[in-house]
Amino acid sequence: HFAATAPRPLAGRRAVVTSGPTHEPIDPVRYIANRSSGKQGHAVAAALAALGAEVTLVSGPVSLVDPAGVRVVRVETAREMLQATLAALPADIAVMAAAVADWRVADAADTKLKKDGSGAPPPLGLALNPDILATVGHHAALRPALVVGFAAETGAVEIYAREKLARKGADLIVANDVSPASGVFGGDANTVHLVTAEGTETWPTLPKAEVGTRLAAWIAARLASATDL
Ligand code: CTP
Ligand code: CA
């Protein structure tokens, strides 16, 4: 029975993880979404739980099995995701891996939009969604000891990630290149750069499950060293 002797360095620690896309309604039957599968966020949640953490996974709409030993809260919109994330605080660890829609439709219709005969499409005014990572990273009263964000970028990946580290009040940004050629979205592998105030560490291309496992171990080590001070 290996499980009985598995090290549980995160026992007694609480974690909140966001994962998946958000869906932003246009009307009762239509929404704006993105290509996030939730695989990476769910893998991190599972790996934190495997190290003994008490994990709340706030998940947008995904077609994944709930990770074992994790409390899953399902949401659709960015605003629902923010509320569920704040409700999971206080926590020691926040990992914001969701691909939150940057904008929502400002005035979603209560009834299905119909073609009006003129041929003119309806104007879709957009409103900025709340930034969940920045809200948690800058939270005056309930900021977790370790706040981790992801950054899906194309082009100057590390530069954009470092800017997000500062702007969102994160301790770590896990940055990856999501150019179509990378195959990250929907795929099972990920190539990530760990961007912290101290520097950047690049991991080899790994299965998303393995990235989750290593990230959970990185988090456990970081929390342990902070506690030792
Ligand atoms: N994030 C969030 N809430 C948002 C937008 C992003 O919590 N409304 C989080 C993501 O979960 C991720 C990190 O912020 O951990 C970076 O997301 P990203 O989309 O790369 O950042 P943005 O600030 O939205 O910048 P961009 O214009 O590049 O999309
Ligand atoms: Ca964004």
From TrEMBL:
Keyword check for Oxidoreductase: no
Biological process according to GO: coenzyme A biosynthetic process; pantothenate catabolic process
DNA/pantothenate metabolism flavoprotein C-terminal domain residues: 10-221
Cellular component GO terms, alphabetical: phosphopantothenoylcysteine decarboxylase complex
Record's keyword annotation contains Ligase: yes
Obligatory cofactor(s): Mg(2+); FMN
Catalytic activity as recorded in UniProt: N-[(R)-4-phosphopantothenoyl]-L-cysteine + H(+) = (R)-4'-phosphopantetheine + CO2; (R)-4'-phosphopantothenate + L-cysteine + CTP = N-[(R)-4-phosphopantothenoyl]-L-cysteine + CMP + diphosphate + H(+)
GO molecular function: FMN binding; metal ion binding; phosphopantothenate--cysteine ligase activity; phosphopantothenoylcysteine decarboxylase activity
Function: Catalyzes two sequential steps in the biosynthesis of coenzyme A. In the first step cysteine is conjugated to 4'-phosphopantothenate to form 4-phosphopantothenoylcysteine. In the second step the latter compound is decarboxylated to form 4'-phosphopantotheine. Catalyzes two steps in the biosynthesis of coenzyme A. In the first step cysteine is conjugated to 4'-phosphopantothenate to form 4-phosphopantothenoylcysteine, in the latter compound is decarboxylated to form 4'-phosphopantotheine.
Family in the record: In the N-terminal section; belongs to the HFCD (homo-oligomeric flavin containing Cys decarboxylase) superfamily.
Name of protein: Coenzyme A biosynthesis bifunctional protein CoaBC
Full-sequence portion shown in this chain: 180 to 408 of 421
